[in-house]
Amino acid sequence: MAFDHRKYVAFKPVAKKDRRWPDQVIEKAPTWCAVDLRDGNQSLIKPMSVAQKQRLFDLLVKLGFKEIEIGFPAASQPDFDFCRKLIEENRIPDDVKIQVLTQARPELIERTYEALEGAKQAIVHVYNSTSTVQREQVFGLDRAGIREIAVNGATLVKEIAARYPDTDWTFQYSPESFTGTELDFAAEVIDAVTEVWRPDQGQPVIINLPATVEMSTPNVFADQVEWICENIRYREHISISLHTHNDRGCAVAAAELGVMAGADRIEGTLMGNGERTGNMDLVTMAMNLYSQGIDPTLDLSGMAEITEVVEACTEISTHPRHPYAGELVFTAFSGSHQDAIRKCLARRKEGDAWNVAYLPIDPFDVGRRYEEVVRINSQSGKGGVAYVLERDYDITLPRWLQIEFSKVVQKEAETNGGEIDSHTIHRLFEDRYLKVHEDWSLRSYDLHRDEEGVRAEVVVGSDTSPVTFEGCGLGAVEAVSDGLAKRFGVTVAVEAYDEFALGEGTNANALACIRLTANGQHCSAAALAEDTTSATLQALFSAVAQAVGTDMPAAKAPEAAEAV
Ligand SMILES: CC(=O)SCCNC(=O)CCNC(=O)[C@H](O)C(C)(C)COP(=O)(O)OP(=O)(O)OC[C@H]1O[C@@H](n2cnc3c(N)ncnc32)[C@H](O)[C@@H]1OP(=O)(O)O
Ligand SMILES: CC(C)C(=O)C(=O)O
Fold it and tell me: Which atom of ligand 1 lies nearest, measured to the CA of 138?
């Protein structure tokens, strides 16, 4: 059997009984470093052109990144040229540090510094793999041999930097494949490197702990980070950075727990592009902080621009469910979600803390419109349909009509199988409830109230054959119903009716909705008019028309009607 779990060996947890990170709470944003232009770029089918790199670099600067890994200049001419272009064309803001990656190999380190000549400040990031698998199978070296590569690399980084005293240098070292490295050995190599660099003597140093391959649950990674923070020399002079990958789908969680475990700095890419399943997604992690009321120190309000630039540069489209950025992440199709969102938004007052069911953040903050929040398909319910009519057409439906109309929409959704847009919902409402048949159109009414009640005189019908009738009752609806019975023999029993004043921007001022039985048949209708009485009477006639058919029943002669 090819699919055989016995092929795999479980990752051993860290034997750490004194872990403190589970009780920590993240209260401020870490230092961010975007590695889109290096780790992100090295994973693309078609690496970015210089123009694409420039576009992405400009975006990263605009978002507020102060540390940006721009490439691996010793690896390829385009990476080298891009680095030169940024420096020579003075495109790096004074408060931004560029970072470049190099293997711990002399010729590559030399070439890296050539690329950086003239930079005001830069981070030189040198790495070699320390994991058991790479030691044994890739390098064929023991621990001492691997440590020597790191020390030689660190020594050369320091020596060559001294040739360029006008640049403000930060040194960064990564024990690549840290997650597959024994902790004591990782600490041993880190100490050997920092013994060369001496952060305690003023040299800025970053030690980056990469989950080059994510191998365990994030809690194990947090244990590893905490252990390193507790066991390396010069910890207080070092910035501990994390660089997680997403092989198990937990890169963001691992980075978050890693910060709780003591890390100061996080590397990642926008939208998580990167090797295999990607790097840690900076957008998600920063927005997670934002949603907890913590300033992420990045401005991610222009999410549409972010996704557009990332897509253009990586040629990878954004998943519609991508946290915070996907097209559908603020949209509810399902009925109970829509109902809850509608109720929460309606109760929300300006200045309230955000507390809306199903929406972890206010979509508006990332440039999304409330229009997208509720969309209708066959999974939707009355709340969603009512929300769309209210939001887009200022039509408020009474609860009984919401229930009834949502069945009309549901049927349409089941028939067409997909989404029903707002325009179609409105058309369905018009067709089903607002249609006025000529014979039953209200032409005029006159209501007279005295101590006996209301006396109504109503004219309905077309220009050419208007019909006038009269009736009386306790209110207008009862009086007109009385008239309908006398003149047309239609017995009306009103079960529910509601009137609403409409907001500005509509032609009509009032909406009335009515449900009744006419000659024993259940019907409902609505009407828009300039005043509430006209709307109510028209709704009554439209409902009656449904019961008796669009052909007006023969009117009784006024004398016969009097006799009824
Ligand atoms: C986890 C990460 O993402 S690390 C970053 C990885 N990114 C990249 O590799 C993208 C850019 N890299 C490249 O373009 C190329 O690898 C280059 C130009 C840097 C080097 O190219 P080459 O020397 O032709 O080939 P290659 O990368 O296969 O070299 C591997 C050799 O370097 C050694 N090596 C690999 N990594 C390191 C390192 N970090 N430090 C020291 N030596 C290293 C290997 O053991 C191997 O040695 P061998 O030739 O004695 O067997
Ligand atoms: C070079 C290091 C930081 C890296 O990219 C990784 O390990 O994934």
Answer: 45
